[in-house]
Specification:
The chain has 760 residues and is of the alpha+beta class. Helix content is 58%, strand content 14%. A six-stranded antiparallel beta sheet has the order 3-2-1-6-5-4.
Length: 760
């Protein structure tokens, strides 16, 4: 096509515009006419019923899954002992537990379309926790006497759907779910009331106004949802043709039926999951009228398309051909483009595309070079590197004023922030943060930012002498920057502001001043704006609590935790009371205390790996902390653990092994959290795992599964429980896991094992 002349292309366009729509309309007409035949209509409407049924049951399953998730939580354990409304309201913690349940119920009501209300009733309690009424006495809520009858036919541990009319006249489908004893020992029931009108929305789309639908509960043969609300909860067999549908054995199908001289199409489908029968009713007379309308529309539409195509093609040939030829000839004469064998449209497209690409590349290159040059020059200035003459000129253009100040913005608790965010999120936060405060500062001073890693941003400020009187305004802006950082990062920031200089070559030393100020938050605390004070920095003192080493070792020896805590508080107070103490001095004090402690433990032949195994590098942990309060709190916990470990060191490893095995024997059927188990026994998880493996040759999880399978074997032979009940009894949340582990340990399935033992 690129080598064909333009006029020939226009002729082909005319041919395609006229012929292709004609072919398309013909095919479309045949398809539509076929689609509206009785058989095709019946199959199409049956597919529509199937789609609506899946949509409805998907929505119901979402409600059920949300309800089951809430029922499986431990929220209810907090109120299971309080059967009376007075008991519940007598204590704030009890009310708070009930409010937690209320919030979950309200979340269910908000997150699912069509939920009228949701409530929880504790067995034998005289109050209700309801999403619409809150926590109220049971006599002030609608009657719940219907619950017992609805649960009489329940099978298994799932809930049941109960159609009913509420006391206020609202027709709802109530999902009733008793709490499962496998997940909680609390006995009660959750009820979620779904409006019947929501089921109607699921079953009837906007283009099905002529559709009559019916949903029948096969358990009692009553209508549970219908287009005519007067028929709800009435026997379905009383309606025309419904009795015949109820007697059919097929899962789904369609049938034609004459009623009052009108030919009707019935489509039906049975739901095994809910034991419901879905029925749709259509008027065939109405559906077939659409065929004639489609045929007339196709003829008119085809004629219009051909006519419009001819007109458009004529306009294209008249208005486009001559200007395009003229423009293409001019570009060929002026340019040096190797497209001589192409037609005008192809030539112009290639020429303009090449020019656009070259322009975009040039603009991008210029913009990137300018940005990189500016950032690189500021970076070299802050580092104190030797500057080229071109960089000096660029910096002079960027910072034309006389005075310079460097401020360093540092995110407090940066390690915590980094662990909770992805690299992409941190990059976005940093970009948004810098863009925002640079705009705020632009009206006051010239500024440029450079990111220095570890949550630190160096901000170079350049201003004239008139700005010296506006330092209060600058402080206000820095305070606003702190507030914005809290909103964006979720962490406060500490800002260190250097002294002022008139020499660009001294900017590097000002950066060092600002960095040193950031270290001072260890005493000043997080979220501060710190200004450089030459006198204070020049009069720094060195202190060290020499006697604290000996006292801490003595307190560890006798297990006096209170005295250890008091000594750490005394060191904390000494540091705080010492004016102008340096950051390095503070770290030295605590690093020295830790070193002395570790040396003492090694001299006593105490296994320090059992104490420090899961702590990591203690020196790095302390260095990463922002404030003195954090370090003191950490060391209190650190020395308390040491003291407790030494006080219990007389227990032998055999005694620990017996405790581990006894715990597993007692709790194997529960969901064991091994970290919590290790804390309860009094050792680290890694030490517990190593000790148990050396004693048994099995891992902890292998031993738990072994105990569960042994118990299951006994239950299979001696009890009447089915396989699913036995799986839950010995601790497996689903039967698939139970079957997999039983086959692993015994080589056969639970059912085969039971059959062989009983028949043998």
């Amino acid at each position: 096509m690129k080598k064909l002349p333009l006029m020939l292309q226009l002729a082909l366009i005319l041919f395609c515009v006229m012929i292709i729509p004609t072919i398309v309309m013909t095919l479309y007409s045949g398809t539509q006419i076929l689609g509206y035949s009785e058989k095709a209509i019946a199959q199409s409407t049956l597919d529509g019923l199937d789609s609506n049924q899946r949509l409805n049951e998907s929505a119901l399953n979402t409600v059920m899954q949300d309800t089951v998730r809430v029922a499986s939580s431990s929220l209810y354990d907090g109120i299971r002992q309080y059967r009376s409304y007075a008991q519940l309201n007598s204590d704030y913690n009890r009310v708070e537990h009930a409010l937690s349940i209320l919030r979950e119920l309200q979340r269910i009501a908000r997150s699912n379309d069509g939920i009228y209300s949701a409530y929880f009733h504790l067995n034998d309690a005289d109050y209700i926790v309801a999403s619409d009424e809150g926590i109220i006495p049971i006599e002030r809520y609608e009657s719940i006497e219907w619950l017992q009858n609805s649960l009489s036919n329940k099978v298994g541990i799932g809930g049941v759907w109960q159609p009913r009319k509420m006391e206020n006249g609202e027709m709802v489908m109530s999902y009733v779910l008793p709490l499962n004893r496998l997940s909680t020992s609390t006995k009660g029931v959750l009820v979620v009331n779904l409006k019947e009108t929501q089921i109607e929305q699921n079953m009837v789309s906007s283009n099905q106004e002529d559709l009559g639908y019916t949903i029948i509960g096969l358990n009692n043969g009553k209508i549970i949802s219908h287009s005519d609300k007067n028929l709800l909860l009435t026997p379905a067999a009383e309606q025309p043709f419904m009795e015949q549908l109820l007697q059919r054995q097929a899962k789904k199908g369609y049938a034609f039926h004459e009623l009052d001289g009108e030919r009707l199409l019935y489509t039906w489908k049975k739901s095994d999951d809910l034991n419901w029968l879905y029925v749709n009713q259509y008027s065939m007379d109405h559906l077939m009228t659409q065929t004639k309308a489609v045929q007339r529309g196709i003829v008119i539409f085809t004629a219009i398309i051909i006519l419009v195509g001819i007109v458009i093609t004529a306009l294209i040939a008249t208005w486009v051909s001559r200007p395009l030829r003229k423009l293409a000839g001019h570009i060929r004469a002026q340019g040096n483009m190797a497209f001589a064998d192409r037609n005008e449209l192809s030539f112009l497209d290639s020429a303009f595309r090449r020019m656009q690409e070259e322009e975009d590349k040039l603009n991008q290159l210029i913009e990137e070079r300018e940005q990189d040059a500016c950032s690189l020059a500021v970076h070299h200035l802050l580092r104190g590197d030797q500057l080229k003459s071109s960089q000096k000129e660029l910096l002079h253009e960027m910072f034309p004023e006389k005075h310079y100040v460097v401020a360093v913005i540092s995110i407090d608790h940066y390690n915590r922030y980094r662990n909770n965010t992805s690299p992409e999120a941190r990059s976005y936060h940093r970009y948004a943060f810098i863009s925002s405060y640079e705009k705020q500062l632009a009206s006051l001073v010239i500024n440029k930012s450079v990111y220095y890693g570890e949550g630190r941003i160096a901000l170079l400020l350049n201003f004239d002498e008139g700005m010296l009187a506006k330092d209060r305004k600058l402080t206000q802006v820095l305070t606003c920057i702190q507030a914005e950082a809290m909103d964006l990062f979720g962490h406060s920031v500490t800002i260190g502001v250097s002294s002022m200089t008139e020499q660009a070559l001294e900017v590097h030393s000002k950066l060092i001043e600002a960095m040193e100020l950031i270290k001072q938050r260890i005493i000043a605390g997080n979220g501060q704006i710190l200004y450089w004070n030459s006198e204070q920095q020049g009069n720094q003192k060195y202190v060290y609590p020499q006697n604290s080493e000996r006292r801490l070792i003595n307190y560890i020896d006798i297990g006096d935790i209170d005295s250890i805590v008091a000594e750490l508080d005394a060191i904390h107070e000494l540091i705080q009371s010492t004016k102008s103490i340096s950051y390095d001095n503070i770290l030295f004090i605590y690093n020295q205390l830790i070193g002395v402690t570790v040396k003492y433990l090694n001299e006593k032949n105490i296994n320090t790996s059992a104490i420090f195994a899961e702590r990591g590098n203690i020196y790095s942990i302390i260095a990463s902390m922002d404030t003195l309060d954090e370090i003191t709190a950490y060391l209190k916990h650190f020395y308390t653990e040491i003291s407790k470990f030494i006080s219990t060191s007389n227990h032998s490893e055999v005694n620990y092994f017996e405790k581990i095995q006894s715990y597993l024997d007692q709790h194997y059927s529960e969901d064991i959290v091994f970290d919590d188990m290790a804390k309860e026994i009094g050792i680290s998880y890694s030490y517990m795992r190593k000790l148990f493996y050396e004693g048994t040759g099995k891992s902890l999880i292998d031993y738990v599964n072994y105990k569960r399978i042994e118990a299951a074997k006994d239950l299979l032979i001696r009890s009447t429980l089915n396989v699913a009940q036995i799986a839950a009894e010995v601790g497996y949340n689903n039967i698939q896991s139970f079957n997999r582990f039983f086959r692993k340990y015994e080589g056969v399935t639970p059912s085969s094992y039971k059959g062989s033992k009983i028949n043998g």
